[in-house]
């Protein structure tokens, strides 16, 4: 490729000159190509790898030099001699003559540089190459990465780092490449090469480790190996990037939406993009902002705080819809200003006391003064741009709302859903106490001093008030504020009502589960002992299930939502639930409660660190895993008295998940002595249950609500009362050092473990389900499952013919979670199936796929895949031939047979009649029928449809292509020709019977077709030869006349001309008239198509020349090829319309089987044992050009000299 000219001082160092003229030199790198260049070549290769020289990927170059200059300029690089030679020849033909005209060498240099840069610009324009920030060095590294590891262009390199890879006890210095989907390492030292490729989705552990020998190292673990990398220049940057990429991979495994969200990754992501993504995630978590908010930038500044008359040092964050501030001291002050609330942004006058100030005013008459802004003008411009966008959004929403409101009033009255406008708590409890009044006053004073609403200053005093308990009347408002749900509700007016309206009357699995759990949601509370509360709960849960079908509904959501409804209006409760499920408790409420399992692992780590004396005991008893799920999923609401648990919810909305961890550790710490004395998990659970039942809230104005959990405990001595406020404060004092960013780090580590454990469980369950249905061993099935899954993932990474989200759905049963389409199947077919033979494999793979795709959705699951592979690897001769035969039957025929069986099962004659009612015996009858039907039955060969003439031709083509690369190729061709001849004669005999039957039916009298027999003169020998192959339905019949009525009807297709005189020739011709005119162009199909016995001589084995390959796709004439596309079924693969097909001609499977059995070569081929283990091993290590097939977890190309 042409490159921007760069100067080179030493043109001869480490390069060999191959061509030269007065202005240009073509050079090759020492050590490249044949011979390797001896010791010098080895040293050069090692240097290139260690120093990251571009010569590793581009071993050829062209230099420009004027005759009197000592400076050379690189103007082109080449990966191959062909590429560099093309550039050289272009220079000789287009530039050499022109350069001789110039007199000044500087002019020549300027001209050459300009010309090369012009070529590059023209290339970029023509190939739509956009300028980006990638340096030439990074582009070279990307090209090297793709070349070394065989990656396609879609696999984008994110970054690469110099490091050492520890192979045994020997460090290998080289380069670590981190791409979107893979971690790769390459080293080349003194002629020895080492490669490593690990898929991010296969990593089970990723951690920084420090030992005496390796103070800074990164350990990457997979299911089968551990890899250690060390000697990094910047280990923190490398580890952080690896962590981000592994996290993305886990998200894709966990949730099929992960692929949708990250479909843009291969196209856009560079390291800077991933850094921006990570910063946005931290920003959203810190200020509880909506999931789609993206950070635009941040800057150091000071904020004037009127409540203490100080300038607080901190950082300002600006995003599309928000301006946020947090102090350097974490708890000192934080602030969130939505741009929808902003009225004025203005630059104030600078002074020595207040340099570069910026004033922001809001609708509730608060003014915020920022100062010490480094680039104030640019910042104001950005905020103004975002403000303009926000204002236009608000106007648009008003117009939409106005147009909806001004529509037909009658219609709107009918469609409006009545949503509960009040908090349920206010409807049932209206009492107040002195303590409650004092709390309300304290909060009102706080609002006066620090502001009220979303723009409130959040300080240490705010936290103190939360820890003392939020007043009942303010709880809903403050939950909305602290959770950030208020922002989503404000920006989505009318969303909830629309969702309720759309979801009304709709039924699915989620709504069924919701109905089942409605009356189990706080049944002890009066608000949910009547239809009003139940209806509100139903609406909120159903609306959320329709908003987020990936979650739908999960147990424990009903308990949390019922508490939200007590303190918030219905729409507010909905948005609080959205904040909980999608931001504050990520992945908690999905079908596999992954988030809760991840936090369970985090809790175990924290317990080991903070209560080490109790940790071993708890692990032995297995209590941590039992308690943490119920505690975390319901935020202690299901294990604590209600009035105490809501205090925990108060703290949770303010401080996040760390509160739950702190409280859980406090409960363990408070019961440490009793737990150490427990002998089993039941005793430990009793201790903890009694303690939590005793947690009280004496400040609560609510009447005591009986707690169901307390009813289940024993009748022993009640535990002394524990004050909830003291317990919460104690948790902050003892365990308040737990930081949110540390929890996120722990979550990442546990997420790898949990998701890989789920994947392993899925694999085991799939294998356990089908191991009894196949002859493969458990180990073989596990290996095949990993290959099947890897093929699915590879297609998700680099594109495929179908959407990956359609093929991977974790909510489906295990067998259905991973499915592959036809393109993916072709890849696995070539690697694993014994009938694959290179160039001719795709049409056969397509036929095979259609046969396996039983439900016709163009996807096959692992069971279907194994059923097909099992027949080819472990089936007997008959099973293999039956499979081959069925592949060529009209699509849908075989499926129709099975469908007919199922239809018959439920047909009226199978239904017992007992007065129109179904009683128990009837159910048993149906179950018995169903049980019989679901048992695997050996398919009766007589049920298989007959093969017509065009299908038979396709079958012959398949046979010939299957043998094209076999060692006994010629012998198999001859055997196939013999079998084909035999089957053609059988088809003719069958046609005679069929024709006779037609005449009987049309004339109404049993008169044999003598004319037809006369035309087929040697009928006797033909019939004698095929006596053994009479179709099954003709066996034991005394005569054709007698059995004619019982013959199955053939396809209802009539020939244009089926007169007896044409029987031996035209009725069976399979090539067009044009083709027959030229013997040299005659396809081998013409040999097979001649249905008459007169062509027997043509089919003698000894007459087949070596250069004649029967029924190969490349021997079809152009006209025929155009009408027979690859991969079609018999309808779209049929012969051209000009070809005469005999529609009465047909053979049965029994005839096909019996004919094959007459040829020992074919019998040997189909009975040949298959080395399954060898095929699996080969498939694990094969890399197709531009598309590596990665192994079970990772593969290594170990040292090669």
TrEMBL record:
PROSITE patterns, per the entry: EF_HAND_2 (PS50222), TBC_RABGAP (PS50086)
Keywords associated with the record: GTPase activation, Repeat
Boundaries of every EF-hand domain copy: 840-875
InterPro entries registered for this protein in UniProt: EF-hand-dom_pair (IPR011992), EF_hand_dom (IPR002048), GRAM (IPR004182), PH-like_dom_sf (IPR011993), Rab-GAP-TBC_dom (IPR000195), Rab-GAP_TBC_sf (IPR035969), TCB1D9/TCB1D9B_PH-GRAM1 (IPR036014), TCB1D9/TCB1D9B_PH-GRAM2 (IPR036017)
Rab-GAP TBC domain segment(s): 469-656
One Gene Ontology term of the molecular function aspect: calcium ion binding
Start-end of Basic and acidic residues biased regions: 998-1027
BP terms from Gene Ontology: system process
CDD domains: PH-GRAM1_TCB1D9_TCB1D9B, PH-GRAM2_TCB1D9_TCB1D9B
The organism of origin for this protein: Sparus aurata (Gilthead sea bream)
Pfam families listed in its UniProt record: GRAM, RabGAP-TBC
Function in brief: May act as a GTPase-activating protein for Rab family protein(s).
Span list, region Disordered: 998-1082, 1113-1137
SMART domains linked to this entry: GRAM, TBC
Name of the featured protein: TBC1 domain family member 9
């Amino acid at each position: 490729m042409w490159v921007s000219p760069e100067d080179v001082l030493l043109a001869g160092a480490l390069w060999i000159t191959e061509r030269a003229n007065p202005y240009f030199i073509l050079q090759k790198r020492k050590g490249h190509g044949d011979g390797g260049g001896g010791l010098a070549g080895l040293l050069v290769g090692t240097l290139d790898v260690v120093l990251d020289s571009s010569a590793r990927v581009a071993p050829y170059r062209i230099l420009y030099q004027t005759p009197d200059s000592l400076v050379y300029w690189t103007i082109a690089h080449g990966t191959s001699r062909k590429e560099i030679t093309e550039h050289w020849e272009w220079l000789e033909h287009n530039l050499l003559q022109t350069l001789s005209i110039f007199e000044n060498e500087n002019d020549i240099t300027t001209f050459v540089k300009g010309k090369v840069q012009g070529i590059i610009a023209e290339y970029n324009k023509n190939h739509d190459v956009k300028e980006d920030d990638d340096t030439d060095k990074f582009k070279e590294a990307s090209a090297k990465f793709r070349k070394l590891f065989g990656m396609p262009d879609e696999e984008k390199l994110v970054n690469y780092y110099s490091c050492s890879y520890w192979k045994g006890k020997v460090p290998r210095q080289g380069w670590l490449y981190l791409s979107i989907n893979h971690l790769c390492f390459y080293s080349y030292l003194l002629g020895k090469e080492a490669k490593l490729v690990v898929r991010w989705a296969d990593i089970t552990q990723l951690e920084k480790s420090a030992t005496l020998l390796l103070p800074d190292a990164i350990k990457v673990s997979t299911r089968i190996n551990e890899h250690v990398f060390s000697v990094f220049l910047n280990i923190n940057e490398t580890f952080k990037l690896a962590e981000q990429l592994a996290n993305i991979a886990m998200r894709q495994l966990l949730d099929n939406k992960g692929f949708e969200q990250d479909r843009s990754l291969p196209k856009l992501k560079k390291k800077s993009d991933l850094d921006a993504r990570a910063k946005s995630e931290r920003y959203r978590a810190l200020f509880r902002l909506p999931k789609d908010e993206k950070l635009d930038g941040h800057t150091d500044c000071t904020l004037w705080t009127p409540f203490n008359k100080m300038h607080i040092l901190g950082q300002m964050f600006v995003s599309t819809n928000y301006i946020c501030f947090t102090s350097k001291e974490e708890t000192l002050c934080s602030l969130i200003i939505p741009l929808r609330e902003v009225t004025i942004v203005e630059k104030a006058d600078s002074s020595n006391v207040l340099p570069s100030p910026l004033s922001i005013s809001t609708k509730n008459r608060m003014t915020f003064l920022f100062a010490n802004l480094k680039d104030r003008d640019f910042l104001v411009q950005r905020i103004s741009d975002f403000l303009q966008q926000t204002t236009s959004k608000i106007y648009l929403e008003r117009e939409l709302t106005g147009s909806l409101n001004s529509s037909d009033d009658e219609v709107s009255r009918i469609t409006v859903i009545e949503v509960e406008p009040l908090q349920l708590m206010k409807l049932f409890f209206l009492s107040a106490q002195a303590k409650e009044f004092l709390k309300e006053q304290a909060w009102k004073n706080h609002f006066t001093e620090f502001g009220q609403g979303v723009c409130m200053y959040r300080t240490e005093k705010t936290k103190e008030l939360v820890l003392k308990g939020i007043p009942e009347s303010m709880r809903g408002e403050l939950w909305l504020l602290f959770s950030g749900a208020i922002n989503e509700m404000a920006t989505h007016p009318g969303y909830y009502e629309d969702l309720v309206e759309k979801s009304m009357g709709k039924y699915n699995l989620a709504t069924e589960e919701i109905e089942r759990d409605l009356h189990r949601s706080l049944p002890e509370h009066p608000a949910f002992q009547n239809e009003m509360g139940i209806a509100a709960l139903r609406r909120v849960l159903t609306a959320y299930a329709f908003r987020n079908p990936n979650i739908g509904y999960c147990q424990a959501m009903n308990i949390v939502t019922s508490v939200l409804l007590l303190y918030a209006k219905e729409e507010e409760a909905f948005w609080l639930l959205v904040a909980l499920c999608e931001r504050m408790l990520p992945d908690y409420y999905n079908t596999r409660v992954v988030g809760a399992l991840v936090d369970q692992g985090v809790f175990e780590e924290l317990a080991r660190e903070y209560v080490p004396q109790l940790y071993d005991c708890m692990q032995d008893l297995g209590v941590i895993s039992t308690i943490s799920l119920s505690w975390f999923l319901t935020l202690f609401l299901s294990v604590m008295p209600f009035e105490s648990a809501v205090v925990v919810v108060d703290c949770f909305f303010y401080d996040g998940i760390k509160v739950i961890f702190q409280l859980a550790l406090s409960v363990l710490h408070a019961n440490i002595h009793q737990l150490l004395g427990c002998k089993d998990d039941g005793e430990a659970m009793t201790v903890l249950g009694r303690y939590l039942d005793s947690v009280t809230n004496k400040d609560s104005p609510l009447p005591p609500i009986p707690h169901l959990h307390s009813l289940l405990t024993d009748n022993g001595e009640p535990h002394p009362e524990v004050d909830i406020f003291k317990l919460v404060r104690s948790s902050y004092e003892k365990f308040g050092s737990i930081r949110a960013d540390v929890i996120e780090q722990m979550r990442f580590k546990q997420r790898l473990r949990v998701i890989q454990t789920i994947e392993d469980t899925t694999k085991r369950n799939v294998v356990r389900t089908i191991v009894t249905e196949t002859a493969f061993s458990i180990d073989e099935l596990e290996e095949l499952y990993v290959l099947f899954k890897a093929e699915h993932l590879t297609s998700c990474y680099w594109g495929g013919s179908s959407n990956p989200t359609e093929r991977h759905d974790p909510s489906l049963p295990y067998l259905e979670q991973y499915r592959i389409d036809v393109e993916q199947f072709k890849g696995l077919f070539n690697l694993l199936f014994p009938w694959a033979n290179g160039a001719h494999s795709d049409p056969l793979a397509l036929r095979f796929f259609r046969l396996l795709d039983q439900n016709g959705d163009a996807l096959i699951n692992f069971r279907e895949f194994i059923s097909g592979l099992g027949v080819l690897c472990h089936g007997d001769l008959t099973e293999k031939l039956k499979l081959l035969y069925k592949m060529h039957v009209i699509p849908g025929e075989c499926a129709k047979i099975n469908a007919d069986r199922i239809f018959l099962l439920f047909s009226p004659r199978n239904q017992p009649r007992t007065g129109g009612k179904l009683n128990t015996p009837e159910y048993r009858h149906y179950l018995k029928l169903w049980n019989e039907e679901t048992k695997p039955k050996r398919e009766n060969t007589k049920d298989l449809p007959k093969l017509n003439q065009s299908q038979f031709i396709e079958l012959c083509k398949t046979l010939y292509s299957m043998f094209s690369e076999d060692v006994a190729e010629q012998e198999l061709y001859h055997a196939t020709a013999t079998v084909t001849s035999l089957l053609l004669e059988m088809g003719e005999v069958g046609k005679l019977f069929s024709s006779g039957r037609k005449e009987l039916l049309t004339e109404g009298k049993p008169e044999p077709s003598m004319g037809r027999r006369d035309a087929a003169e040697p009928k006797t020998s033909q019939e004698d030869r095929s006596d053994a192959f009479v179709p099954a339905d003709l066996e034991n019949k005394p005569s054709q006349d007698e059995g004619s009525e019982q013959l199955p009807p053939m396809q209802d297709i009539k020939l244009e001309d089926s007169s007896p005189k044409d029987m031996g020739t035209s009725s069976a011709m399979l090539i067009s008239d044009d083709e027959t005119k030229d013997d040299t162009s005659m396809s081998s199909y013409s040999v097979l198509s001649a249905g008459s016995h007169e062509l027997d001589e043509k089919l003698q084995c000894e007459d087949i020349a070596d250069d004649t390959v029967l029924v190969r796709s490349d021997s079809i004439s152009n006209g025929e090829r155009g009408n027979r596309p690859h991969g079609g079924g018999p309808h779209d693969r049929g012969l051209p319309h000009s070809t005469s097909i005999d529609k009465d001609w047909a053979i049965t499977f029994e005839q096909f089987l019996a004919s094959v059995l007459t040829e020992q070569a074919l019998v040997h081929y189909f009975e040949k044992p298959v080395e399954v283990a060898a095929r699996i091993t080969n498939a694990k290590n094969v890399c197709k050009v531009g598309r590596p097939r990665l192994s079970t977890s990772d593969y290594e190309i170990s040292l090669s000299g």
